[in-house]
Amino acid sequence: xxxxxxxxxxxxxxxxxxxxxxxNVVAAGADWIHVDVMDGHFVPNITIGAxxxxxxxxxxxxxxxxxxxxxxxxxxxxxFAKAGxxxxxxxxxxxKNPEEMLKKIxxxxxxxxxTLRPSTAVEKILPYLHLVDLVxxxxxxxxxxxxxxxxDQMAKLKIVREKLDQLKSSAYLQVDGGVNEVTxxxxxxxxxDVFVAGNYVFKNNYAEAITKLKAxx
Length: 217
Description:
Layout: E1 5-8, H1 18-27, E2 33-38, H2 50-56, E3 64-69, H3 77-83, E4 87-91, H4 98-107, E5 111-116, E6 134-138, H5 154-166, E7 172-176, H6 183-189, E8 194-197, H7 199-202, H8 206-214
Parallel strand pairs: 1-8, 2-3, 3-4, 4-5, 5-6, 6-7, 7-8
Helix pairs in contact: 2-3
């Protein structure tokens, strides 16, 4: 497997000084910056929109990894792509035509990602793995930070890892939710190579937390 990438989630950052927070976590070793976009419909929370992503782009020297937890993403992917999303991940539950959507994201200049809720069967995404640059396996219910890690999602993670390997895909396999040095070890053992971490990074020493995640085996 490729080296671990760490993508701190700005949902846990101090929004009053977001540019400074991003600068500090990148200096501490962050590889990507993870942006959680919620609409209050697909998930019971509201966060940020494309204008915020656009404002973050000039101050973020690493890829912006944007996770759309929204209904009708086809109405918004162009705005988020133009705003500067490097990776743009959509939920299989929200897609009327997954193949068309993933191809459209790539045409817009972003790298397409695909994800699913913990309650959604992994088989729903397997037919589309050849179209993506990123697969996100949620280890909490999407919508809020600080939830407990769902260990039962490791079976799903392992299946996706095996399928990507069969396809000889270079797509990243990402985990998000309750990630720390203990739960992260389980994720690594089941094939994950990108770790989204919110509270674990932003509520601790940034460099120490990121270093511990990158050292997982």
